[in-house]
Design brief:
It is a single chain. By secondary structure, the chain is of the alpha/beta class. It is built from 4 helices and 8 strands. The protein has a single domain, classed as Rossmann fold (3-Layer(aba) Sandwich). A 6-stranded parallel sheet has the order 2-5-1-6-7-8. A two-stranded antiparallel ribbon has the order 3-4. Helix 1 crosses helix 4. It is elongated and about 55 Å long.
């Protein structure tokens, strides 16, 4: 599986880009999954009071919620799961897009930068490219710059690496 993280400051448009990349992959007839990193300490996928919530709060190590159109697994853990552990839980696909995990070494990353503030790429040589709105530049950055509004070009770059 090819894995690429989409990173950037809060509000930069990471989720919007990922949505576009997912659609573009599917339009090409290719498979894609995502892993989203959150800084919130509790992951709540269910509403308090619902059965699955009650099962987990009662101490179940894992809860699977299944319906006619899909299923989700909620697993309790005493320590944070590594990205490798999470990737191991996915069914094989051609591309996994990761949102977050901006500090991980060795993970191919594309930064979304809309200007204002300091881009992560200036301090992190592991960022493979920066996606920028038209007319935006990063002084002193010599890496690959991609047009933020050209989803196909960004996807081609991700798939080429």
């Amino acid at each position: 599986m090819r894995v690429c993280a989409i990173v950037g400051h809060q509000g930069s448009g990471k989720t919007s880009l990922i949505e576009r990349l997912i659609r573009a992959m599917r339009e090409r007839g290719r498979s894609v999954s995502t892993v989203k990193h959150t800084h919130h300490h509790d992951v709540e996928l269910d509403t308090p009071g619902k059965d699955s919530f009650r099962h987990r709060r009662a101490g179940a190590a894992e809860v699977i919620v299944a319906s006619d159109s899909g299923w989700a697994r909620i697993a309790a853990s005493s320590e944070p799961a590594s990205l490798q552990t999470l990737l191991g839980q996915l069914r094989p696909v051609e591309l996994v897009l990761v949102e977050g995990f901006k500090q991980l070494e060795g993970l191919r990353r594309v930064e979304v930068f809309r200007g204002g503030g300091t881009p992560l790429a200036l301090a992190d040589p592991g960022i493979a490219a920066v996606a920028l709105p038209q007319g935006t530049t990063i002084a002193g950055y010599r890496g690959t710059q991609l047009p933020l509004d050209d989803t196909a070009a960004i996807l081609d770059f991700i798939l080429s690496g």
